[in-house]
Structure formats: C-alpha cells, structure tokens
Write a structure and sequence with these properties.
With 215 residues, chain A is mostly helical. Chain A is 70% helix and 0% strand. Classes of the chains: A mainly alpha (215), B little secondary structure (10).
C-alpha cells in the first residue's frame, strides 16, 4: 500500500459518500445516471469475484464489501425507492450502455493477463470502469445545470483514478515486477474521459459560477 | 497464490 493508492481509495469512498448524501439528503436522484450506477455495480461484482477466495487484507476485503454494497444500494434506491425513483431523469438517461458492457467483455476475451474466468472478468471490469462514466457525463450535458453534490460526486470519482495512476507509477519504480499495462492504459483512458468535465468544473469553481457543461 | 496472479488493488 502507498500514499497514492490510499488517497485514491479514500477519494473513491468520498465520491460514494457524496452520492449517498445527495440521494439521502435530497431524497432525489435528479442528475444521476442510473446506467452509470448499474455499470459500476457490474464493475465491482466482476472485479471482486476473488472476494472469498483470495484474502489480501482486512482493509481490502472491507472496502470491496463497501463498494459492492453501496453500488447495489444506489441502484436499488434509484429503481425501487418510492420517493427517490420519481426524480430519476429517465428521458435524459438514454445512453445505450449495453454496448459498453458487450464491448468491454469482447475486449476482455481478447486482451487479458491469463485465460481464466477470474482474469477475464477482472479485465472486463477494468475496461468497463474506464467507460462507465459516459452515461453520467452525457446526462450532465443534457440536464444543463448540475447541482453541487452531483458535480462533486463526478469530480471525486474522476480524481480517484488519477491517484491510481500515480500509484502505478510509484509501484513501477519501487517493485521490479510491476507491469500491469491493462490497468495503466484503461486508467489513462478513464481519467482522460473526465478531462473536459475537470476543465468546466475548475472554471466554474474559479469564476464561482454554477457548473454548466456545454450541450 | 503467487503475487503475480493476485490482484491486490481495489
């Protein structure tokens, strides 16, 4: 464990807490893409298949349970909760995310570290996470104004993978064997997809204006 | 299992 990875995990946790706060405090999920939440639930379920077979540390196991539990709880809330589901922007959240799932799975069948079920699902989860934010970014552009908590959620979600890139650089120089280029490339793509959001987020913060993404 | 196959990151 290094400071970059710890910062990344905590930033990721903060993004989830901000999202839970927004949904719980406002009893609304307006501006949140259910499709992105479903993709993230799939990412964690596919990535943590080793939850009960490979024990890394208490921290690792607890965080995996938190990520799986919170992502499923958010999807449940947005689909089933009587009050919250009424504020879901169904007509704006139209990204065909099934193509992202299919594409990531096909890529994982072709490009993986080892041809085992666990490694193929791991690679699938890495590729899917890289593009999982797309429905959310599209929804933000369509819904025009972005409320503060939603903006902060997306910001922290993007920032966490940037910390992971620093973690991979650190591990590359400190551990001879560390060459996880599947994570490297997907992590760079994932962070790059946030580039324009980060730009408009920073500009809105600098000008102390509401976050507006160009349609 | 050897470090190689084990994904120790979240």
């Amino acid at each position: 464990m290094n400071i970059f990875r710890l910062a990344g995990d905590l930033t990721h946790l903060i993004s989830i807490l901000v999202l839970l706060l927004k949904i719980y405090a406002t009893k609304s999920c307006s501006g949140i893409s259910l499709k992105t939440q479903e993709l993230y639930a799939l990412v964690f379920l596919a990535r943590y298949l080793d939850l009960f077979t490979d024990f890394v540390s208490v921290y690792n196991t607890v965080m995996k349970l938190v990520f799986i539990g919170s992502s499923l709880a958010i999807v449940w809330c947005m689909r089933m909760h009587r009050i919250v589901k009424r504020s879901y922007n169904r007509e704006l959240d139209t990204f065909r995310h099934y193509f992202l799932v299919a594409g990531s799975f096909v890529l994982a069948l072709v490009v993986h570290e080892k041809f085992t079920l666990q490694e193929i699902f791991w690679a699938f989860s890495i590729y899917l996470e890289a593009v999982a934010i797309l429905p959310q970014l599209v929804l933000l552009q369509r819904s025009g104004n972005v409320d503060n908590l939603t903006g902060q959620y997306v910001f922290f979600l993007g920032a966490y993978r940037a910390f992971y890139i620093l973690n991979w650089i650190y591990r590359y120089f400190t551990e001879q064997r560390f060459g996880r280029w599947i994570s490297w490339i997907s992590g760079l793509v994932q962070t790059a997809l946030y580039a324009d959001f980060f730009y408009y987020y920073f500009m809105s913060w600098k000008n102390n204006a509401k976050l507006q993404l160009p349609a | 299992s050897p470090e190689g196959s084990l994904h120790d990151e979240l």
